[in-house]
Structures are given as structure tokens and as C-alpha cells.
Amino acid sequence: MKQIIIKPIISEKSTSGADTLNKYAFVVAKDVNKIEIGKAVAAYYNVQVVDVNTAIMPAKAKSRMTKTAVVKGRKPAYKKAIVTLAEGESIDVFPSVEDTDNA
Questions:
Q1: C-alpha to C-alpha distances, 5 to 32, 33, 47, 79, 102, nearest whole angstrom
Q2: Which fold has domain 5-85?
């Protein structure tokens, strides 16, 4: 079984969309379609998916300065899926952390 959902996108823009518009963003495999993405999100998070939008994000050139030289490289391209959930549904993207008090 291939992995469809690679990871959720946690950024300021994507989390504000989750709060107001009930939309969540994920990095997904490049060869999957919208129907497969919707079924995978619905099965994994146990929610009802209303709509799926996808976009191929292009590769980016990155460089950084070190003591000896400028290191140049590339960040790879990836496919992003924005999933809209039904009213009243939500996904807890952040894992719950129990408060353990050692005092």
C-alpha cells in the first residue's frame, strides 16, 4: 500500500485557514489524484471530506553563507492538497501533550 498523505503543512497561513474556513493543507504523493486524497484523509482522520484542491509547488533554489563558501542547493518540488471538511468537522494536527508534573 502506497503512502498518500506524507505530512500536514503547519504554517501561519494553513492554520488560519483551518480555523476560519475549515481547510487543512497536506503534502501528498505526486502521483495521486483528488479522489484518492479525499478517501485517505477521511479514513485516516475519521472525518467527512467535502472538497479537495491540489497544487504542484515548484522546486526552489536555496543558498546559505558559511565560513568558507556559499553553499547552493535545491529544495525539491512537491504536491500540496488543500482539503475542505464538512461543517462541524475538525482535524487535530498537533498531537496532544499530557501535562506531566515532576515536582
A1: 10, 12, 15, 10, 36
A2: Alpha-Beta Plaits (3.30.70)
Largest CA distance in the chain: 54
Residue 101 has pLDDT above 70, yes or no: no
Which helix (H) or strand (E) element contains residue 82? strand 78-85
* Residue 47 cell numbers, joined: 472525518
List the chain domain ranges. Answer: 5-85
Taking only the tens place, the pLDDT of each residue in 9-20 is: 998 988 888 888
Per DSSP, helices labelled H in the chain are: 12-20, 34-45
18 close to 8: Cβ distance less than 8 angstroms = no
Residues 6+ apart with CB under 8 A from 57: 77, 78, 79, 80
Q: Which three cell numbers stand for residue 80?
A: 500540496
Distance CA 102, CA 23 (A): 38
Which residue, chain included where needed, has cell 479537495? 52
